[in-house]
Amino acid sequence: MILPIRAYGDPVLRKKAQDISPEYPELKELIASMFETMNGAHGIGLAAPQIGLDIRLFIVDVSPLADDEDYVDIAEELKSFKKTFINAKILEESGNEWKFNEGCLSIPDVREDVSRKETILIEYYDENFVKHTETFSDIRARVIQHEYDHIEGILFTDKLSPLKKKIIKGKLNKITAGDVAINYKMRFPK
Fold this sequence. Notes:
This protein is α+β, with helices and mostly antiparallel strands. It has helices spanning about 25-40, 75-80, 140-150, 160-175; strands spanning about 5, 45, 55-60, 80-105, 105-125, 130-135, 185. The chain has one domain (about 5-180): Peptide deformylase (Peptide Deformylase, Alpha-Beta Complex), CATH 3.90.45.10. The chain is built from four helices and seven strands; from the N terminus they run βαββαβββααβ. The mean pLDDT is about 95. Its EC number is 3.5.1.88. Its cofactor is Fe(2+).
């Protein structure tokens, strides 16, 4: 089931999300709906706060990037990189910071360069509540960091310079007001 994505300005996007247990109601169905919602909006990641739930759950599917010429060297790895992260905790960020132009389904039509570390060590549970501790690098680490920020109540726009924030303020106000053209279901703050 495709769910409406919460728009910039919704208070749930600023909440630090709570851990869940394996008994969380209809978890498998929720994860399936999140993938359907993300794919319908042509995204590569989606966090539970973006659909109105303040729980520590996010999904990532970077397979659409496998055809991008920037990722020729890792195309095979990207094709099968579809994961669910429950109760995730980033244990370490390392390597050089690199800038990349990020966007967000909750902040349509706004894209800006964001600096992030190139490698992360993360502990999480998968959709079957099997615990993993893994290291990710490259675009996979970046997408995970972006979605992880959502469960911490952080948006990519928070990482911008004061000048950049001032420049995009008008666009953000329009999103909050619902004055944006999108091709997916979205719920705007009241």
